[in-house]
Amino acid sequence: xxxxxxxxxxxxYQQLTDDMEVKRKNxxxxxxxxxxRRDYERIRxxxxxxxxxxxxxxxxxxxxxxxxxxDITVELKMRNKxxxxxxxxxxxRKTPELVIMAVTFLKKLSIFQENKQDMANQSILKKLIxxxxxxxxxxxxMTLRxxxxxxFDLELCETMxxxxxxxxxxxxxxxxxxxxxxxxxxxxxSISEKCRPMFSLTDCIPMLMKMxxxxxxxxxxxEVVALGINLACHPLNxxxxxxxxxxxxxxxxxxKTSDALVLKMIRNxxxxxxxxxxxxxxxxxxxxxxxxxxxxDDQMQLEALGILGNLVIADLNYLKIxxxxxxxxxxxxxxxxxxxxxxxxxxVIILIGTLSIDEETAVMLTESGILDLLINLLRAKxxxxxxxxxxxxxxxxxxxxxxxx
Length: 405
Prior knowledge:
Blueprint: H1 2-28, H2 34-68, H3 72-80, H4 83-90, H5 96-109, H6 113-121, H7 124-128, H8 137-150, H9 154-162, H10 165-171, H11 179-191, H12 204-213, H13 222-231, H14 235-242, H15 246-257, H16 260-270, H17 275-279, H18 285-294, H19 298-310, H20 318-324, H21 327-336, H22 342-355, H23 359-367, H24 370-380, H25 385-399
Helix pairs in contact: 1-2, 1-4, 2-5, 4-5, 5-8, 8-11, 11-13, 12-13, 13-16, 15-16, 16-19, 18-19, 19-22, 21-24, 22-25, 24-25
């Protein structure tokens, strides 16, 4: 019955609005008499009173339906009776309290994939984009929560980009009360590889760097760094992050606070092929070597290994690095120790592949017995495709040097 009332009132609203528009045009025409204009003003006031009463009725009906929908079987019946299109229509209303009820209901329904698909098919994002930003704090918060639910769908994330929602969300990072919620939405959007380059066209990267570095003595917020880790996977974003003193400040932050997540973000920056970007890491090789040898934090050690393994740089003296930080002994210990985590073993093998680029280092690796350890590892971990691939790459790299054969 409540749904019938809502459907009837929506149709009635549309009819009243159409009639008022016709009357408005007639009253505004040059041929309209003063009497006609007074009649229009009188009718307009009555129309506003009727709409106000109607919206109160709709709000109460939605509140009742929202409570009834706590029963999943009742909610399913509502869906089958097309409650989503009715709620979507109410998003166009101007009264914040009524729109809040519609958004709240949609947020609850959006938990289920089928409902999200229905909303996507009816272009919900085009209706929500006008609500962001919004001066009504509760409406803004509920709209962002609905967007957060929708953002679990990567296709909807890509639609958010197409609809121009990204710059609006980035602007909301300055809103302290909604910042974490916005960061979570942006994180979901950044999971899509197609969406990542679009962040470089906004102020997101400078704002993100400011948030990461804002408190030098404490680890950065997990939501902030998680977004940074994803965005650093794209070269345009990585260049912006490392621009100027960016990389220096990030390294200082990671080391001072022992923040492995920030170091992971740096690792993602280091993975790109741009040699000018990779050369920025040359000054930090001693620091990375120290972390690898001395850090008691396994995650810090893992990320430092990953960064060093990414530094494929022409004319870099890899032999000097191996000798200075006694990496040969470290590598042997990790490969021999059966208790070593698979992630660490993989990064060690990637590092060996990088070191093997240099002929002198390749010869040292061959003579140290590393090959036997890799062969044993290959037998033990033959079901791990990534590990096998990296071991084969090491063998390939070693065969490129005459002296290491």
